[in-house]
Amino acid sequence: MSYIANTIDNLLHQTAFFNLTVGNYVMIAVACVFLYLAIRKDYEPLLLVPIAFGMLLVNIYPDIMMHMGENGEAGGLLYYFYLLDEWAILPSLIFLGVGAMTDFGPLIANPKSFLLGAAAQFGIFTAYFGAIALGFNDKAAAAISIIGGADGPTSIFLAGKLGQTALLGPIAVAAYSYMSLVPIIQPPIMKLLTTDKERKIKMEQLRPVSKLEKILFPIIVTVVVCMILPTTAPLVGMLMLGNLFRESGVVRQLTETASNALMYIVVILLGTSVGATTSAEAFLNADTLKIVVLGLIAFSFGTAAGVLFGKLMCVLTGGKVNPLIGSAGVSAVPMAARVSQKVGAESDPTNFLLMHAMGPNVAGVIGTAVVAGTFMAIFGIV
Fold this sequence. Notes:
By secondary structure, the protein is mainly α. It is built from 20 helices and no strands. Helix 8 (about 120-135) runs antiparallel to helix 9 and helix 14 packs antiparallel against helix 15 (about 235-250). The termini are far apart. About 50% of the residues are buried. The mean pLDDT is about 90.
């Protein structure tokens, strides 16, 4: 009888109910909120579902992220996924997929879009100096600041390169959360800073872009950017390689693989591993709260800077630029461009801004990678 009682007692104490802390239950609730937003509200489900589920798993069974032992003991499943983040493999492959999926034609047709993409990077520097003021060291502040560009892969890439793995979880979750919440955060800022008349501005149709231009663009950008900042090669190089697959027209199989199967596999691995870094012990602390607040402020400042620069371009061009496209200068491709279209269509349903907004949106991706490379160069990271 005692054997049965002991067996039942052992089984009961092996359940998670006897091992979880209050913090674990809080994180499980947060994971459920994220799943609700992804499934019910359709907020970037490709990102939020794996992130939320990784968060759920690690707070029920922390050993799923257990590090590999010094004597070769096996680590947890998601720990091996996480190593691919830490080694910058998954962020670089994400950029390969984004390049293969994205038409750079609007940026080529309207090079002034680079200025709007650059203006939106203001949020990154706002976050950097804000993080310094809150007591983070310079490398940690640089890793945190990329959240202002709403670029999850680059945030993970830079945090790993700068050795800020302790902050990688909060940084990545904040960056991806704000990417997912672009449709909620951006519209109020865009409407506050523009008039109804400005939102109704219809832009001239973009000029046709030749096939030769589309092929030369990724090659030229790679040479120029990577010669100036070689440390950007893993991100900018993969982004441009993916786009060259797309535009060359001779490697259809590679284009389809990079933009579909490979992209989705990487999203699963990256999303679940990012979510798995959010154990209660690692996530529920003052630094995480600071990072989340800094990210929101930075993303808001980046959006505002893009819109304000769009207003300046509107004035300088005699009313030919709709300021709303400036908000797309953050790196959330193509969500930010869709938000520009949506807000513009609310003022005038016949106004089509999507292709115009894709120019700053693509420029923002390149710009954020350049800023990350700049930080790496400043700190002597190769």
